[in-house]
Amino acid sequence: MGAASGWANRSKPSRRINPTPVSAERPLSKPKTCFTSTPVSRSPAAHWSAGSSPEAFAAVQEGNLSSVMSNSLQEEREMLKKERCKLLHQASSPAGISFDPGTPTKPSYTRSASLPAESHLVTCANPAKVSCKKQLECLAQLYSSCIAENLVPNIFLELFFVLQLLTSKGTSTAEDGDSDPEISERNRDVSGRQHFESVHNCVYFAVRVLDYQFEIISHLEKGMLKLLAENERISSFSPTLHKRLRQAYESSTAKVSLLLPCSVQSVSFQPETDNRSNFPSDRAFQVFKKQRDIFYELLREWEDNHEKTVWDFERVLGSKIRAMMAHLSATCNHSRFARLFQKQLIQMCKGPIGGGASWGDTPDQDVLNMLGSDNLSRLKRLQERFVVPQSIRGPCPPPSFPGCQQFFRDFILSAGSYQFNQHLVDSLCLKILELNGLTLVEHDHSDGETDMEEQDEKKRFTVALLSLRLLAKFLGFIVFLPYRTAEQPAGDMPDSALVLRNQTLPVLDILKLLRQSIRDQRSILTIPWIVEYLSLVDHVAPFLDYYRKVFGLLLQVYRLMVLSEDKEMSFLNKLLILAVLGWLFQVPSVPEELFFTTDDRQERFVMDTVTSAQALDFVPLVDQQLLYTCCPYLSELRKLLASFVAGSGGKNGGFIRKITPTAAESLAPKASVTQQKLQVDLEQAFFHNQPPSLRRTVEFVAERVGSNCVKHIKATLVADLVQRAEAMLQDKVKEEDVNHDKLLEEVCTHLYEEGAQALIKGREFCKKKGPEAVRVLLPEETSAAVLSSAESIAVELATEKACGWLSANIAALIKREVKATFNRMLKVPGFPLPGVDAVELRRDCPPGCQHCAPFPSQMINEIKYVLCVAVGPREEGEVVDYVWLECLLGRLSQTLRCRKFMCPTAEQQLAKCTVELASLLVSDRVPLSLGIKSSEKSPERLRGKNDPTSGLLKLLFSIWKEDFGTSVPVQLIFSKKNVGYLTEAKQREWDLFLFLLHGLTEHELMRTSEIQSCLHSLEELPWPSDFVKDLKRLSRVFVSEHQIEKPRTNPCELTRQSLATVTTQS
Amino acid sequence: MKLSKAQYDEIAQFLGHVQPTRQSLRKLKEKFPSQSQSTLLSIFSQEYQKQIKRTHAKHHTAEAIETYYQRYLNGVMKNAAAPVLLDLANEVDFAPSLMARIVLERFLQEKEQAIPSKTLISSMLRDPSQIPDGVLANQVYQCTVNDCCYGPLVDCIKHAVGHEHEVLLREMLLEKNLSFIAEDQLRAKGYDKTPDFILEVPVAVEGHIIHWIESKASFGDESSHQAYLQDQFWSYWNRFGPGLVIYWYGFIEELDCHRERGILLKDCFPTDIVTLRHSMAQR
After folding, report:
1. ipTM of the predicted structure?
2. Its pTM surpasses 0.90
3. Where are its TM segments located (chain B) (predicted)?
């Protein structure tokens, strides 16, 4: 690692990518004593006195690698250290000294200062100039064995170092003077330094190690292989390795993209879990509704602004989040919100770089059209170069929360809510346990569908693994948050804290889960997320008894997981586990001595694994894409090479490599004595010799049909019962002032008996639907016997599921639904009056209606205009055209007949307005203009049956009677206000009023007696005495007329006569 | 009809202090003959409401109320048939319906010696026949009928217009064979926030996938759109994903800036609809 900084110091400043020394990437801790990594700035003496690590290492090494002399290891370490010291002293920039890994530095530590001002050309490494080949070869072998046997804490760190050697640049002065291998050979004896003094030796060593580690390298991604295959130093130092690399590159399909499209979506609202019935109170429901919206509002605000420099999460969002927490506490909604939070977290962050960079990450349709899908992939790669960070950060970055994860982390920090954290932890644990239990369907080689299935399963595994890692990281974050310190606690470990913390139980028993996963051979799923969890430990936690055991066990797994292509576990599966564990051992808060101390208390590694159907380790589930997604730092290797060889290009082809899965055999349960058990066993046996898809289909059908059955019963039987209950309640609630609860109970009890029908209907449903579904889903060629067995099993399972649920819940369901309906019923305004709506609902458009009548809103607007002009104030000469008004009423009739656009409020308003209009018409408040005829207008002319107003009134009668679907409030005509319009009325207006009254009775809009009583009560009001006289006279005439005229048929003709009578009398 | 921010500002500028009467509306139409009447009316109504919101407090101080009431009493004493309340409202730049409410409330307070309930007042505004004083009843009615931005009649017209456009939208969806769940069905299922229509199968409009459609029978100006985003559209997005808003009376073009994020604005039913598996409109 130290070599990295030396190397960095010598790089050219003109380079586009600034390489970063590895050691400085873990600035929050003191560095690990790694196999090859001695801090540059430390003197060897200081290092030796630093601790017991080398001894510890030696002990380990002696136990496991007896074939290699331990002395040579230490010798090599020393040599490397010296080499680094030398390189450091050669570096002209004083900034190189500042790489004191013992001092915590900020992550933003800038490395540009360390670049030397001088720029050297890359020295041409020459195989002929290599000195002490023999020793180098020996060292290479030794070193490679350590890597191969997992004796180094992080194999990729070592590979990174090797690549640094491969790409190192010597100073030209050193090279030129050192041209004779013989001289170097002699010098070696003087000091061990010379082994790695020249670039030629470094490259030689590196190429040898790469040769030994070819298998690992050949499993890395294609871009990396390409760079190695094109590396001139390799080709000149080892043509055979070059050839192998070329072949590996050409046959590799392991293209890796760190930019997976990730379109951000919200968590959808699911009525089954999110509607009112899931909340204890209306308030809790309403509050949560608001919290959901606030949460997304915060998220959007963060999206928009977090990249701006002046924007500060806590300052802008902190108080909003805490207000939200307070509301959640008040209504006990934390668990619900925690679930939403967790779902949104998964939705946004399961991508490789912490979720999409923007909300609209999916390719724009326009762009797609413009470029075509072929060019789109190029565009994507280009985009990747922009979005994915290119600077070299070393293969062991500290844990971080990239991309959208940052929002969620900051949210937790700003919320600072104990309740929220607790519920979030619960929610995370629950989801982790669920995902950790993932089972894959075994693969069947015999049929051709494996490829597709295998891909699906791989996808499922990938999704589960990435989600698990994400959730575990957040779980670890919250769990260790209270103990987090910026740096390792100074001095001795606080014993008291240790004693106390040793007493507490972990929220999630990861030790148990880890053991189980090893036993069940599912470590490929479990270890990667446990590593994420542990990467966030505080500085004390690893010393707790519990976590000591966990780390001890992980260390054993690491040691034993020797990389080779064997039957037990695929190479890439192992590589992933090694990569994540290696990374964990480098995490700042994980103590460095961990790797090198053997703990006697460590439990024996459980080798007695159980081969179960759930085993995952055998299945080649990991591909390079997943490996690099989980360990993005692996691409540091490639970046290092790329920065050495700038601007290499070249096209390549490739074929799709198929990974053939191996199936684990499932064990049929042992037969037992009871008949029932026998049946179950028979069923299992039946599935045993069938393709696994059969079982999956049957189970799937059973699950769905069972669920649908319950839904169907709810929608039919229960709905019917509720409807009947509604009718019963409607009757009874009107009877007297009854106790609602008691009434409800009574009605429900009545219905429970019929609820028993549900089981019978449920059984019928499953029996009908189950076989249909099975038949559709199974292959056509399935034999009749197999089919019928599958059908009956599916029906049996579905019935079990549905009827089990129904028998337990039907009564409660009925009660809940009836209660909800009852509450709605009570809330309806005007209840328990038989609603106007009931009458209204029966109406329909006339047959053949084209729905092209004017809109109701338009009609209200126009009538409003007429009313406006009528009540004034009017402008000079402002009139209402008679023909236009007549036409308006005609259109109103059409509007009312077409029911399509009508709504109750509009219709009621129209009814009210037309009554108002009638009152204004009879009192001559509407300034009607009769067009040309208006000049001839005279009171005499307008009187009598040809009065234009009566024509309009006749239209209104007909509209009220025939066209309105709602009841028309004609009694408003007798309101004090409207009758008041008549106070200064002349004879003509009284005639029209009488005409109106007759019209009302003739069209059965009001009964005669009603009108009489209205008129009587009007007479009681404090009017001017003349007006009361007029009213009384009118009342008298109306009564007499009506009695006389009753047998007659034509109301209008009659009215003319009666008006004349009134006139003569007055 | 989409308006640019500049076009909109020109109209809003003109509307500065226009009174909400039918005469003003006529003038507005003459001034901007190229704009549709409903768009103009909608903008007018919104602008006027903004102005009223700004000055609302001013008209509700105890002093103001007392002054208005005394002026009303003096006015009707001189001539009960004159448009006393309406003129007063216009004079002090306040909505006639709201002025009627202030005076009515004050009147009832004096008569009943208690503060009348809001529902009673609203009910009397809707049906002035219930007002015990005949003169006041006429004055109030004159105010509510003449007001073209506030009052029960206007409220009803707005409600009707909204309903009609929902029905229109439903027809168009049926015609295009797009299956949907309407608001009332969603409510019955217990959704807490519901757009007018949720598409059972999402479609792409102009290349953007939408899950829901909301119909707005108004003009989309800045303040109303912000309020809708806050109260409705983002809430729908939070629950159902991206969606489409149709402002039937147009909107300010610049507001259609959340397309990428999932809120699409249109002023009519879209023609470029791509459904799953087959294209309905040829691109």
Report:
1. 0.89
2. no
3. none
